[in-house]
Amino acid sequence: MGEHENDRLSKYDWLKQFLALPEDIPSGHTFGRVFEPINPKVFERCFRHWVESIVEAPGAQVIPIDGKTLKGSYDREQGKSALHLVSACSIYLLVLLVLKQDDKSNEITAIPALLELLDMAGCIITIDPMGTQTAIAS
After folding, report:
1. What is each CA distance from 58 to 1, 22, 96, 97, 122, in whole angstroms?
2. How far apart are CA 96 and CA 44, in angstroms?
3. 64-82: average pLDDT
4. Phi, psi angle pair for 94, to nearest 5°
5. Average pLDDT over every residue of 100-105
6. Is-contact 127 111, C-beta < 8 A?
7. Calpha distance 63→68 (Å, rounded)
8. C-alpha distances in angstroms, 7 versus 1, 4, 27, 54, 70?
9. Between these two residues, 134 and 33, which has the higher pLDDT value?
10. Which of 47, 8, 45, 54 lies closest to 27, judged by CA?
């Protein structure tokens, strides 16, 4: 059994916990048709509401903030650069919030927008040296 077949079987075993799979694993196109009509803003609002319902009052929770470039997410044909994200995580290893950066932006401009959306009262925020700007700290 090849590596591709092992990967397919592990996905099948995981998916069958949640879905009836009478015709095997749905194709990527099928997943695309399912997720395409979802409004990202509505999904974000629902996701935040769900996160708030399962995460207790943060107290002295540590929230690390970090930016990442998604390897392989660029599109040479359309001249689009790689996708850059800034995220904040909870101690439960749950990503609380992710913001996509504009192509001509960087973490320094995206971090304040992310911080505006989080309730950080009583939390300890960690950030890499790039984010240690006076405006961000205030």
Report:
1. 47, 43, 12, 15, 7
2. 11
3. 77
4. -100, 125
5. 60
6. yes
7. 16
8. 10, 5, 14, 32, 22
9. 33
10. 8
End-to-end CA distance of the chain: 57
In the chain, domain spans: 3-35, 57-137
Is residue 126 a contact partner of residue 64, using CB atoms and an 8 Å limit?
yes
Please answer whether residues 85 and 71 qualify as being in contact, where contact means their C-beta atoms are separated by less than 8 angstroms.
no
| H or E stretch at 31 | helix 28-35
Specify the pLDDT at position 42: 92
Contact (Cβ atoms closer than 8 angstroms) between residue 51 and residue 26 = no
Number of CB atoms found within 10 A of residue 118's CB: 16
CA distance 53 to 12: 30
